[in-house]
Amino acid sequence: MSETEQKPGEAMSEDVREMASSHTSLAGRLRNYFLTGLVVAGPLFITVYLTWSFITWVDNWVRPFIPEPYRPETYLPWPIPGTGLVIAIVALTLLGFLAANLVGRTLVELGEGILNRMPIVRPVYKTMKQIFETLFSKSGSSFRKVALVEFPAPGMWSLVFISQPPAGSIAASLPEPDNVSVFLPCTPNPTTGFFFFVPRNKLIEIDVGVESAMTLIMSAGMVQPGADKDAQKKLADLAATARMAQLAKARETVE
Hints:
The protein is of the alpha+beta class. It has helices at 14-21, 26-62, 72-75, 83-100, 102-115, 121-135, 169-173, 210-218, 231-254, and strands at 145-150, 157-162, 179-185, 193-199, 204-206.
């Protein structure tokens, strides 16, 4: 029997014993504590940083449209972050309310009529309007399904997002009768990628959400779908390993 097996009340498994024994030194415990702190603070810091950057960007964009007497920093010694974001949300909501009324629809149609008469502005506006209507439409089906397609070579599979099926002359020109539009994002920048038409029978739809698939692509496979559910458990296991290493060190000191 080994010395570890002879300890009374010992119930740790073999892998836990090995893990604890490898962290009995002071440097090993400090490294474990550092990694635990990094796992806790890293995602929190990046989330706060990105959120703060977005709020600051919106504030800087909206502030020039606010008259100086109505700005909070005019009466306070410091600006209030998020004021521009709140004003932007209220303004967009009010604009949507006005556009839903008869007078608002008339004004929108009048503005669209003016833009449709401009040669350079017209295609840009129409394209942007169709994209926004597709993305934010309640009944739209774009980018709500994830599938696998055999790309870029036989035996190699890539994640794609299913978009709207082709229509008009494009659908009539394709050799297969049933096709769909798909977007294949690149790693790690999903804003670039490939757009192509593929027969529906060449796709394998999978039960993975768009957000999970996007995370998988951005992390280059390091974060698998469903891994977020086990994040807290892994963090707790890491902290438990550190505690067990500390207990093992204390027992060796006592003995």
